[in-house]
Amino acid sequence: NSLYKALLSVRNSGNLTEVQSRLVDLYLCEFIRNGAEMKESQKKELSVVIQKITEEQKKYKRNLDTAYSMALRKVDEGHIAGIPVQILQYMVPPGSDPRKGPWRIVPHPMVYEGILRYSRMASLRRDTWIKMVSMAGSDMMERRSSNVHAIHGIVQNRHVMATRLGFKSYVDLVLERTMAGSMDNIVSILDMIKNKLYDIVKYDLETLKEFSNKPQLEHWDVEYYRNLQLEELFNLQELRYFCDYFPYTKFRDSFFQLCTKLFGITFQERNDCSTWHENVEVFDILEEDGTVAGTIYIDPYARDDKLDRSYYEMGRDRSAVAETTRLTYISLRINPSYDQSKPSVMQFDDIHSFIMNMGCALQCILSRAPYSEMSGNRHMEPDAQKIVPYTLLNVIQIPEVFKSLSSHHSSGVEIPDEQLNSMIGAQEHMQAIDVLNEAFKSALDLEFYLEETRGTFIKTPESTPDQYNRLYKEFIPMPLHPKDERFCTFHDIFIGGRSCLYYAEIWSKMVAADAASAFKEVLHDEQKLALVGKRFKDTYLTMGAAVDPKTVFRTFMGRDPTPEPFLAKFDNRKAIATEE
Predict the structure, then answer these.
(1) pLDDT for 319-334, tens place per residue?
(2) What band does 141 get if pLDDT is binned at 50, 70 and 90?
(3) I need a surface site. Which of 185, 419, 548, 575 has the fewest CB within 10 A?
(4) What is the reported pLDDT for 341?
(5) 367 with 542: CB under 8 angstroms?
(6) Distance from C-alpha of 31 to C-alpha of 25, rounded to nearest angstrom
(7) Backbone phi, psi, residue 479, to 5°
(8) Residue 279 and residue 273: Cα distance in Å, rounded?
(9) Phi-psi category of 46—alpha, beta or left, where left has phi over 0 and alpha has psi -120 to 50?
(10) Which residue in 115, 141, 143, 118 sits closest to 129, CA to CA?
């Protein structure tokens, strides 16, 4: 309590800089959320509520584990027709040949998504989809393994916790320190997405039904026929050669040169550092005046001893007090080349991962915030943490920019326009389905935790499916299947760290698309492009979490963000859907 009171005294002194105010507010917020302003009796009551939440979350996790164990199922060779090896490797025991088996369906996202996208057996797709959407649902009530009651307990107790802490709802507690700032702002964006994409998705589903030649397009048919149509429209066999134009080292160096052009920084390779593997690369990032801003370690290639995902980690934050320089690590999953005559090349997903992780790393390394807590994006508002990487991704995917980063591994020529446009088109094929689904899940996340949004607060376990059904009909132009209770496995918002924050990904993409429009407008004017790049560096890349993200955006763009650039890519699709 004495430390809390000391912080309050410092905060109220009026002698703090903006960065210091942000830092003090960060700690005050944590103190308040842990009951610093409560009496001892109130703290004990709060502790009991938090314990109840923990118990309900354990129950939720146990129910998921039970559902997962019951989902295991052996399949024979006839069932795996059409499923690629990269999916089959998740379906065999460790050390087994994915081409020979034995295979079994395991509760892994890659397995479920792979079966729904590639399996030629409609019965396998149907059984897999139904198992996936009904896990830990009402059918498990008799076994006491349904998550319907656990969800009710988590939501109700989080609401009690929030009101005890002085908030109207759990949503208000979570959104207190976000860029969006309020539920109304988020709902406004989600409604705009829904209004823009609902008819487009409806048209896409009707198109898939015609393409499938089936009287009825079922839920488990959507991804399968979407993928078949994708192959037919964009000739995926030809697009296999896309990666030949993006050898890793050349793409990396081209990206570094683009950063020099836009932000005035340079990358200097170091060979004097010890690393954990011979393939690890080390680069110092130098400011325009030659000073070292920080060091980045890149571990580019996939290995058995690495995680099966790409990621970045901050090794050391900037601190003016401790006089530290920044250090960050990036781990990628690029397939290494075992052919000495051909370098390792990057698939589209590899390029996406490289840019996203480099964006986060640059924001951490180039930060000028004097305190480690405010350096980079570690303590930044959660819905602003990915704005920089998504902005860079938007800039990279401008066809002229994307092409300039390409170089065939043997001839050195840039990728032909037709092949590049086909790859971009393939990536965006029926993308509205995915975006609308994410908007639906974001709305559902908020709905579960609100007293009044589009409906009512969950007062009984039985009302949970009602909320899901109501929002589903608002967002998804396809009949709700009677077995669909996917909310029972929506662990991100119940036992993960994204409760009331699932919208953050869409929000970051929306803001990033707007920020990237500044680069697109001046792309062909070198002088103006340099000015936009410098402005982006002086705001997004150097301010870190030291400045409120709304202020950062306004400083960069001179106005508040608008969703129009994010939604604009669907304009042509909207016109087609409306005409039909």
Answers:
(1) 888 888 899 999 999 9
(2) confident
(3) 575
(4) 85
(5) yes
(6) 10
(7) -55, 140
(8) 12
(9) alpha
(10) 115
